[in-house]
Each structure stands twice: as structure tokens, then as C-alpha cells.
Write a structure and sequence with these properties.
Chain B: GO terms for molecular function: NADH dehydrogenase (ubiquinone) activity; NADH dehydrogenase activity. The complex is a heterodimer. In chain A, about 75% of the residues lie in helices and about 5% in strands. By secondary structure, chain A is mainly α. Chain B has 27 helices and 2 strands. In chain B, β1 and β2 (about 75-85) form a beta hairpin. The chains are: A mainly alpha, B mainly alpha. The interface between A and B is large, with 58 and 53 residues.
Chain lengths: ~500, ~675
């Protein structure tokens, strides 16, 4: 098995597949483009399955490593590998791509091939981010993944798509320019290496560590997004087509958080300890402040977007309390949020496709006409508010436990999500789904069809499976998380 | 896996299978199919529980893992069972009451289009509740805890097009979440300091925990843990000030009011504290806290029962008050008395609720007691069983409630813990109040003038009059009897559960008080510290249940209860004009009670309104004003402005460029020559 370049396949199958889809050309061939895209997405997922099955949970070392020289003059390598911190994201990403293709099946009728291709290429690029072990390779994937997302929002988006696309692009570009500077600095300091693993071992004085940490904080914080650099996300979500929102929430937000794990913590551990108060404070603000903001949203997509920011606050909080429950809980939360936020946006998409409105006020009594949909939506709303036996509970529970262990008051503030999360999720659910049939649009709604049932059903199964038996998920991360914590505890000064 | 372990698994799984079949395949199996599979599931659970009960009585207990949920941070999170005397008692109560309610539902919901869904939910509830009581660790406890909350949410909002119902279910869920917030922190503290969530392992470390202070706050650790856990119990068991959801939960169909909001789910908090007795015993502060909250609930919620006109709401406030009694018992370390009252209350309160439901069927879904009266003639079985239930509730000697309530009062009397004096006052006065509102209801419903079938109906629910503007299909709430129409006795599926519940309501106290309170039944399960009196004094003076009942005739609680009954009789049978006169004379007090001490108003304005205002403020001022307005778009404007400025320099006139160049050269030269 080791001689098959699985990670390369995970990256390039969707990318070349996407190019192939693009080659089907105009919308006359749309059915072909859809079928082909679906086949590519499934193939892209299939090649990631051996990553889990063949994963060695006993070691924290990089696995499925591939290395080849790329630009010898600057010692840049095509260096791939995954460990317990990253392997699940590659699989999740490939999996979500399937649901995205299904979600855009009937809804997108304009530039179908281009739409499908953009998502497939994006998926491959993001797999590249999660598996790159070379700084430049990482940066290239990181930047390149902006382009398809920019196009998805800008071409297939809503009325205000240009503002949203540019805001998204500039925000994230600002962060990544700072990252580029840091990467070059690290290249110099390490005596000419772009290997991320080499950088982990590089001793650095405290002042540059602090500066590097702050640069990373901005670069990754924008992506997560952390308060106060989060305002691009609600706009981007509102304007993006359903599939765009799904990928954005389920995968793209994880890129920033992953950056903290792969770069900030291991490369500048002393600065991470020194400035952990800052990240914890920003995370708690995200949990509470954004929770309140989510409560008053009138637009469903905005509400879920704010809820995403609030949930990602748990992720960054978990990273910086430096205990295994915190970090593993944060990773679990990222995976779970991948399922739950994807499902929430798909549910809103199902409604939007029928009524063409995202305003809560335009709905009411949906359960009367769409009982099956209402049942799925209930499950996902409950998962979003962290109900036990759903995946949403596991990560929050672990992070709260870790936080109480770290400092009771931090746990106290974090645990308010139990109330806030339920308040905004269920209040929205009540206004949209319960009550009497609000208007004739709702009266004419048709319940979900087989295709919609399929993607919501798969996600529901994932949400429940992870909630009832998270063991297989946490099992793969123990070795890497413990190694990370051990590494972070050692000073580099 | 041994045979017994398979049987343990069968208890929760049988109702779960029933719930899944009725829920997912309800259309295929039809209405009859739905109630057959769910009733079968619960019946299997009950039969297995009886068998397990005998096994436990023979001395076989069990504490083991079903599967490992997760391992993280050095803690093994498991799903597992602890089968001992406390568990098996709860299993019997839950499965028995659940079975009664399942049967009753066939009659009560017979015309409802959501028939299969309802059966699915109540079976799902039974599963969740069983998982809660059978747990051997805090994780699964929390699972069950929130799962019963979910089902309660679904069932309160069962008639989802009623605005009041979907308001009530959201409120119930959120208030419970406030409790769960505390509960989760308690679990977090246990995980942090004990390093395990398994009950037995935590209890083994209880002494160690009691010797520590918390790292950041400096509080005594064990007190913090117990109070956090108890906040969870306050939410689930509706103790002041987290009681506000329970009266509103009456928006759900009556069978679930009996099962969830009287007999089982709301007692989960009581069960949990009793289960945690090895921890609570180590903190007098926490026990005092428990005691004062319980006493306040017991008395002040009883007062509210007096002014209600909706038959279900009277029973709901009575439930709150009785939960207060159980909590008081916990506070004075009489855990077994609390659990004993939990059991007797489960039977007689389920009976009273189902009786109320039967009355509601007979009255064609009119719940206002002012439209009833003289029903005993028309509904003899309902009448007689309700009378038995009421006598049990007020603690009439020999009835089950007598034994449990008297034990609690005696335990409070003997207790020396701070707050015991206040608690004694509350529980004594509470006896009078309970008897008064119970028999007020009894007389208004079953005796006196027949007030039904008249043209002018009282609005049956003054508090929510605004919300009752709908007349949709299955909202039969306002129908009531047409002029000249008479109420009728309910079908046998409704009356049979009443009879089967009436039997334990009358008898169970007499037969179980000795083993449960003074025998070895809870030995090794419930722990009472040497510094606490608990039931020890009562045990010394106990000479059998009959002697206790005879002695009960000479004690204050009996006469207080009789006084309450007599006063109700006088007010509502002899001189029906008096209550109205009192209401006029003591208007402020009446209005205070009518508005439930303004808790709801306060919560709506301060918490709900405050949260929305804060959210709006943060969004408009923080996100849109400062971050987007000033920082983001401000940066964009700044860039634009700089660009505008720099455009001024690019005039396209060669002489200006040349002039600027010369100035530049001069400045550079100046620096060059002066560089020292």
C-alpha cells in the first residue's frame, strides 16, 4: 500500500477530474458534466479511505510521506504527509465534496461544468493544504484555494456578490501576505530549508517568536475567522451559493485552525504560551459576543454563519489551553462542525431553492408541508446546539472539560454556549418550522426529494455516528496530540 | 456477556426499538401497529425490570461497561450500567408508569393525526429515562439528562401549531439548559480533580476531593461540585428560580404531563442528588443550599396552586411543591425518604394527572374548573380514583403519601443543619396549602353545582388568552360541552390505568416504608454521614407502619391537612361567595399569585429582552459600526483617500515633475553632506 502515492491521488484526482469536467464545455453537456463530477468526487473520496484504514495510530510521525525535489535551487520540495492532526481533514474534505456536488445537481443550471469544476479543484487544493509539509508548497495551495472560492461567490453568488467576494479576497490576502514574510524569514533562519518539520526544531529568540506568532495569528485568525476579523464571513455566506457556503463552513474555516496546529504552536511554542491569554480572550469573545449576535439575525444564513464563528471560537480556545482534552476536543469540534454546518447550510439551501428567501420572517409552519425535512432540520439544529448523542456535543464537551481543568472561569464562560447555542438554533427552528402555515409559499412547499434525502441522510448518519461513538475519531489523534503537547512544553529559547 | 447483562441491555433497548419502529415506519405499520410495538417494548422492559428486581433482592448487583465511548486526556469515557437497589426501584417506577401512560394514550390521543409520532416520542422518552437511571457514570447521566430534555421539548410542542405550545417548549429547553450549564461545570470539576467520571471511582475519591480547594477561586472544591450539580437538578426538577418552565409545559398532551412532568423526568434531579449522596454528605453548605431552595419551592409554589383555574395547572403547581418536599428531604440528608416520596408521588401524581386528563376528555377538552362541578355522577371511576389520589397527595394516614411526607417532615424536624427551621415552617404550612388546593380542585370538579353546558364559558386560560385565537384541526382545547350536553365516563383504556395506578397510590407506602427507609434496601447505595441525623431519630421511634399511621392522627401535619380540606369544603361547597370576596379584599396578594410572583415577566424582560437587546447592540454597534464601518470600510476609504491625494501629484505637467525632482535632490544632498 505504501508505494501508492495516496496523498497525491487525493490532491490530483479532484484537480484533474475538475479539469476534465471543465472540458465538457457548455451547458448543452450539463448532464454529462454532473455525472462526471459525481464520479470524480466519489473517486476522490475512495482514494482517501485507505488513509484511515492504513493509518498507524501508535506513532506521531508523518505517514504516507511523499517527497520529491521541486525547485532544487531554493531547496523547495514536493513534500507531503499526514499525521493524526491532519488525516481526518483530508477525508472529511473529500467526503463533503460529494455532498456539494449532489447539492448543486438541479439547482445550478448556469455554467454547470465550471461550477462543478471549481468545487473539485478547490477540494484538491485544500487536500494539498492539509498534507503539505513544505512551506512553499503549503503557501501555494493556501493561496490557490482562494481563487475557486472567489469565483464561486463572484459568479454564482447573490446580488451583492461582488462586494462579498472582494471583501473575502482582500481579508484573506492580507493575512497570507504576512504569512509569506514569515515563511521567508524562517527559510533564512533555518539555513535554507522550507521543510515545516525542520522549522519545528528551529530554536528562536523570544522577540522574533512573538512577531512570528502575531503574523500567524493574523493570517490564520482571518481564516478561522476569529473575532474581530470575522466580518467577511457572514457576507461571504449570504452571497455564496449553497455549495459555496457548505465548503466554506465545513472545510475552508478549518484551514486557519489547522494552521495554528501545524505552524503557530510547534514553531513558536514560547510565544504561544506567552500570548495564549490573547487567543483565549478572543476565543471567548467569539463564543459569547457572536452567540448574542447570532441570536438576533433575521437571515438564516447569517445566523448559521455567526454560529459557525462562535463554534470556531471553541476550536481556538481548545488549542490554547494546552491540554489533551482541549486540543483533541478542538479537532473533534472541527470535524463535527464540518458535518453540522454543512448540514445546516444544506437545509437552508433546500428551503431557499423552493421559496427563494433566506429571511426567517418569510417562513413558519414548514413542518406541515415538509415533515421529513423538519425531522432532519431538527436533528441538525439540535446538533448545532450541542445535544449529547450528536457530534456537536463531543467537541464542546471535551473543550469545556479541558477548560475547567485549565481555569474554572474560562470553562464557565465557554459553557455559556450551552444556553446561547440552544437559544439561537432553536429559536430560529421554532420560527421557521413550527407554528401555523405562514403564507402561500409555505403552503405550496414540497417535501425533500430522493436526492435531498440522500445528502441529508448521509450527514445525519455521520452526526449520530460521531455522537454515539467518537472513539474511532479520537483514536487517530492521540499520538500526534500528545507529541504536539510534549513539543510545545519544551522551550525553544 | 452473561444472561443478566443481556437482560440489562434489553430494558432500555426494547422501548428504543419500539420508538424507532413507530417513528420511522409509522405510516406502514399504522395506528394499531404503532401502539402495539411501543406497548410491547415497554412491557418487555417492565417484565425484565421485575426480574432484575428479584435478582437485586437476592443480592446481585452489577457495575460494568457496555462500550467505551471515547478515551481522551487520560479519562476513559464509557457507556455502562450500575444496577443496584436505587436503580432497580427507578426502573420499576419508570417502566410501570410508562406502560400505564402508553395504554392510556390509546384512548386519549385516539383522534389525533400525530398518533404514531406520539407513541414514538413517549417510547423514546422511556429509553432515555432508563439510560439516565441505569448509568454508572456522569457522561451517560448527562446524555440521559439532555435526552429526556429533548423528548420533553418535542412533546410539549407536540401540537406545533399552537403558539403557546411552541413558546412553552422553547422556554422549557432553554431553562433546562441553564441548569445543564451548571451541571456540565460540575462534571467538568469532577473530571478535572478526580480524573474519572465513573461513579464508583469518584465516590472512592470523595474524601480526597473534600480536602481540596479550587485552584483559581479558592472555594472548597466539594461544595462547588455539589452546588454545580444541584443547579442541574434545579433545572430538571423545576426548583425556584428555574421552575418557570414546568407550569407552561402543561401545553403538551396530558399523558406526557403525567409521565414526564410529574412522575419521572422531573424527579431525575432528586434521583441524581440521592445517587450522589457520598458527595453531598461532605458539604454542609451545599446541603443547606439544597434545603432552602427546596423549602421555598415547596411552600411558595403551593400558594400558586390555589389561584389556578385550569385543572392541569393546579396539578402542575402541586407537582412543583411536591418536588420541593423531595428536595427538602435531600437537604436534611434523608435521601431515602426523598426517593421514597419520589416513588409514592410518581404513582399518585400520575394518577391525578391521568384523572385530570379523563375529566378533560369527559368535558370535551375544556380544562377550566369553573365550567365543571358535580362530575362524580357522570364519571364514577375517574371520580373515585381521583379522590384516592388526592388523599394520597395530602398525606392522609395509611395512604402512600402519608408515609413518605410524614417521614420527610420528621426528618426536617430532627435536622440541625442551617436552614432547617425555615424548612420546617415551609413544609408544615405546605401541608395545609396542599390540602386546600387539592380539595379545592376536587370539590370544584366533582361536587357542587353542575356548571357545564352553559352558554357563557369562562375563558379557560386567562393568562394566555391572546394566544388562543386558533381553531386548527387538532386543537380541541376550547371545545367544551354544548348546552344540555352531559359529560361521560372515559373508555376502558383510560380508566384501566387509573385503577392500576390507584392501587399503589393507596398501598405502596404501607408495604415499602420499612425496607426502604429503615431496612437494608439502600444499604451501600445511599450514604449518610455520621454528622447528619438523616432518618436515624425517626428510625428509633418507628414501630411498624400501622403504629405510625395511628400516631399520625395525633400530630400537627394531620390536623393541618384536615384544616385545609375543611376550609376548601367551606369555601367551595358551603359559601361559594367567600373566595371572590377574599380576592377583592386582598387584591395585591391575589395579583402577586395570579402573576406567579412576576417571575415570567422578569425573565421575559431581563433575560429574553436583555439578550436580544445585547445581541442587537453588539451586531449594530460592534460588527457593523466599529469593525466594518470604521476598521474595514475605513481602511478602504483611507486607501481611497491616499490614492486621491497621490493623484494630485500626478498632474502630467513636466515642469512640476522637474521642480519636485530638484527639491528632492537638494534634500538628499543635504542629508548626504551632514551625515557626520
Amino acid at each position: 500500500m505504501t508505494d501508492i502515492p495516496l496523498l497525491s491521488l487525493a490532491i490530483w484526482v479532484p484537480i484533474f477530474g475538475g479539469l476534465l469536467v471543465l472540458a465538457t464545455g457548455s451547458d448543452r453537456n450539463a448532464p454529462l458534466a454532473r455525472m462526471l463530477a459525481f464520479a470524480v468526487a466519489v473517486a476522490g473520496f475512495v482514494v482517501t479511505i485507505p488513509l484511515y484504514l492504513g493509518f498507524d495510530t501508535t506513532t506521531s510521525a508523518m505517514q504516507f510521506v511523499e517527497i520529491a525535489s521541486w525547485v532544487p535551487r531554493f531547496n523547495i520540495n514536493y513534500h507531503l504527509g499526514v499525521d493524526g492532526l491532519s488525516v481526518l481533514f483530508v477525508i472529511l474534505n473529500a467526503f463533503i465534496t460529494i455532498t456539494v456536488v449532489l447539492a448543486g445537481w438541479k439547482v445550478i443550471e448556469d455554467k454547470v461544468a465550471q461550477y462543478m469544476a471549481a468545487f473539485l479543484i478547490m477540494s484538491g487544493l485544500m487536500n494539498g493544504i492539509f498534507s503539505a509539509l513544505d512551506g512553499v508548497l503549503f503557501y501555494v495551495f493556501f493561496e490557490a484555494s482562494l481563487i475557486p472560492m472567489y469565483l464561486i461567490i463572484g459568479v454564482w453568488g447573490g446580488p451583492n456578490r461582488v462586494y462579498a467576494a472582494i471583501k473575502f479576497f482582500l481579508y484573506t490576502l492580507l493575512g497570507s501576505l504576512l504569512m509569506l514574510v514569515v515563511l521567508l524569514y524562517l527559510f533564512m533562519q533555518s539555513g535554507g530549508s522550507f521543510s515545516i518539520l525542520d522549522w519545528h526544531q528551529l530554536p528562536l529568540p523570544i522577540e522574533p517568536q512573538i512577531l512570528i506568532f502575531l503574523a500567524f495569528l493574523i493570517a490564520f485568525g482571518v481564516k478561522v475567522p476569529m473575532w474581530p476579523v470575522h466580518t467577511w464571513l457572514p457576507d461571504a455566506h449570504v452571497e455564496a451559493p449553497t455549495g459555496g457556503s457548505v465548503v466554506l463552513a465545513a472545510i475552508a474555516l478549518k484551514l486557519g485552525a489547522y494552521g495554528f496546529l501545524r505552524f503557530s504552536l510547534p514553531i513558536v511554542p514560547d510565544a504561544a504560551h506567552e500570548l495564549s491569554w490573547l487567543v483565549i480572550a478572543l476565543s471567548l469573545i467569539a463564543v459569547v459576543y457572536i452567540g448574542f449576535v447570532a441570536l438576533v439575525q433575521a437571515d438564516m444564513k447569517k445566523l448559521v454563519a455567526y454560529s459557525s464563528i462562535s463554534h470556531m471560537g471553541f476550536v481556538t480556545l481548545g488549542f490554547f489551553i494546552f491540554n489533551p482534552l482541549g486540543i483533541e476536543g478542538a479537532i473533534v469540534q472541527m470535524i463535527s462542525h464540518g458535518f453540522v454546518s454543512a448540514a445546516m447550510f444544506l437545509c437552508i439551501g433546500v428551503l431557499y431553492d423552493r421559496v427563494h428567501s433566506r429571511q426567517i420572517a418569510d417562513y413558519g409552519g414548514v413542518v406541515h408541508t415538509m415533515p421529513k425535512f423538519a425531522a432532519f432540520f431538527m436533528l441538525f439544529a439540535m446538533a448545532n446546539s450541542g445535544l449529547p448523542a450528536t457530534s456537536g456535543f463531543v467537541g464542546e464537551f471535551m473543550v469545556v472539560l479541558g477548560a475547567v481543568q485549565y481555569n474554572f472561569w474560562i470553562g464557565f464562560i465557554a459553557a455559556t454556549t450551552l444556553i446561547l447555542g440552544a437559544a439561537y438554533s432553536l429559536w430560529m427552528y421554532k420560527r421557521v418550522v413550527f407554528g401555523k402555515v405562514a403564507n402561500k409559499h409555505v403552503a405550496e412547499l414540497e417535501d425533500i426529494n430522493a436526492r435531498e434525502f440522500a445528502f441529508l441522510g448521509i450527514l445525519a448518519a455521520c452526526v449520530l455516528a460521531m455522537g454515539l461513538y467518537p472513539y474511532p475519531f479520537t483514536e487517530v489523534m492521540h499520538a500526534s496530540v500528545n507529541e504536539l503537547l510534549r513539543h510545545v512544553a519544551v522551550s525553544k529559547l | 456477556m452473561t444472561d443478566m447483562q443481556t437482560l440489562y441491555l434489553l430494558v432500555p433497548l426494547a422501548p428504543l426499538v419500539g420508538a424507532i419502529l413507530a417513528g420511522l415506519f409509522g405510516k406502514t405499520i399504522g395506528r394499531t401497529g404503532a401502539h402495539v410495538v411501543t406497548i410491547l417494548g415497554v412491557a418487555i422492559a417492565l417484565a425484565a425490570s421485575v426480574y432484575i428486581y428479584q435478582d437485586v433482592q437476592a443480592g446481585n448487583t452489577f457495575n460494568g461497561t457496555v462500550y467505551t465511548w471515547m478515551v481522551a486526556g487520560g479519562i476513559t469515557f464509557e457507556v455502562g450500567f450500575l444496577i443496584d437497589s436505587l436503580t432497580v426501584m427507578m426502573m420499576l417506577v419508570v417502566t410501570f408508569v410508562s406502560l400505564m401512560v402508553h395504554i392510556y394514550t390509546i384512548g386519549y390521543m385516539s383522534e389525533d393525526p400525530g398518533y404514531q409520532r406520539f407513541f414514538s416520542y413517549i417510547s423514546l422518552f422511556t429509553f432515555s429515562m432508563l439510560m439516565l437511571v441505569m448509568s454508572n457514570n456522569f457522561l451517560q447521566l448527562f446524555f440521559g439528562w439532555e435526552a429526556v430534555g429533548l423528548v420533553s421539548y418535542l412533546l410539549i410542542g407536540f401540537w406545533y401549531d399552537r403558539p403557546t405550545a411552541i413558546y412553552a417548549n422553547l422556554k422549557a429547553f432553554l431553562v433546562n439548559r441553564v441548569g445543564d450549564f451548571g451541571f456540565l461545570l460540575g462534571i467538568g470539576l469532577i473530571a478535572a480533580y478526580a480524573g474519572t467520571l465513573n461513579y464508583a471511582e469518584v465516590f472512592a475519591k470523595a474524601g480526597e476531593l473534600a480536602a481540596q480547594d479550587m485552584a483559581v477561586t479558592g472555594w472548597p472544591l466539594i461544595t462547588a461540585i455539589c452546588i454545580c450539580l444541584f443547579i442541574g437538578a434545579m433545572g430538571k426538577s423545576a426548583q425556584v428560580p428555574l421552575h418557570v418552565w414546568l407550569p407552561d409545559s402543561m401545553e403538551g398532551p396530558t399523558p406526557i404531563s403525567a409521565l414526564i412532568h410529574a412522575a419521572t423526568m422531573v424527579t431525575a434531579g432528586i434521583f441524581m442528588v440521592a445517587r450522589m449522596s457520598p458527595l453531598f454528605e461532605l458539604s454542609d453548605t451545599a446541603l443547606s443550599f439544597v434545603l432552602v431552595i427546596g423549602a421555598t419551592t415547596a411552600l411558595f409554589m403551593g400558594f400558586l396552586g390555589i389561584v389556578q383555574n385550569d385543572i392541569k395547572r393546579v396539578v402542575a403547581y402541586s407537582t412543583l411543591s411536591q418536588l420541593g418536599y423531595m428536595t427538602v428531604a435531600l437537604g436534611v440528608s434523608a435521601y431515602s425518604a426523598a426517593v421514597f416520596h419520589l416513588m409514592t408521588h410518581a404513582f399518585f401524581k400520575a394518577l391525578l394527572f391521568l384523572g385530570a386528563g379523563s375529566v378533560i376528555i369527559g368535558m370535551h377538552h375544556d380544562q377550566d374548573m369553573r365550567n365543571m362541578g358535580g362530575l362524580w355522577k357522570y364519571m364514577p371511576i375517574t371520580w373515585f380514583t381521583s379522590l384516592l389520589g388526592s388523599l394520597a397527595l395530602i398525606g392522609f394516614p395509611l395512604f402512600s403519601g402519608f408515609f413518605s411526607k410524614d417521614s420527610i417532615i420528621e426528618a426536617v424536624h430532627a435536622s440541625t443543619i442551617p436552614g432547617a427551621g425555615y424548612a420546617l415552617f415551609c413544609v408544615m404550612l405546605g401541608v395545609f396549602v396542599t390540602a386546600f388546593y387539592s380539595f379545592r380542585m376536587y370539590f370544584l370538579v366533582f361536587h357542587g353545582k353542575e356548571r357545564f353546558g352553559q352558554e357563557a364559558h369562562h375563558g379557560h386560560d386567562d393568562h394566555h388568552a391572546d394566544a388562543h385565537d386558533d381553531d386548527h384541526g387538532h386543537d380541541e382545547h376550547h371545545h367544551g360541552l354544548a348546552p344540555g350536553q352531559k359529560p361521560h365516563e372515559s373508555p376502558w383504556v383510560v380508566t384501566l390505568p387509573l385503577v392500576l395506578l390507584a392501587i399503589p397510590s393507596v398501598l405502596i407506602g404501607f408495604f415499602t416504608i420499612e425496607p426502604m427507609l429503615f431496612g437494608d434496601w439502600f444499604k451501600g447505595v445511599i450514604f449518610v454521614g455520621d454528622n447528619h441525623v438523616g432518618l436515624k431519630e425517626l428510625e428509633a421511634s418507628f414501630h411498624g407502619p400501622l403504629a405510625m399511621a395511628i400516631h399520625g392522627l395525633q400530630t400537627a401535619p394531620f390536623w393541618l391537612a384536615m384544616g385545609g380540606v375543611a376550609l376548601a369544603w367551606f369555601f367551595y361547597m358551603v359559601k361559594p361567595g367567600i373566595p371572590a370576596a377574599i380576592q377583592r379584599t386582598f387584591k395585591p396578594i391575589h395579583s402577586l399569585l395570579e402573576n406567579k410572583y412576576f417571575f415570567d415577566r422578569f425573565n421575559e424582560i431581563v433575560f429574553a429582552g436583555g439578550a436580544r437587546a445585547l445581541g442587537k447592540g453588539l451586531w449594530k454597534v460592534g460588527d457593523q459600526g466599529l469593525i466594518d464601518g470604521v476598521a474595514v470600510n475605513g481602511t478602504a476609504r483611507l486607501v481611497g483617500w491616499v490614492a486621491q491625494m497621490s493623484r494630485l501629484f500626478q498632474t502630467g505637467h513636466l515642469y512640476q515633475y522637474a521642480f519636485m525632482m530638484i527639491i528632492g535632490v537638494f534634500i538628499l544632498l543635504t542629508f548626504w553632506f551632514n551625515r557626520g
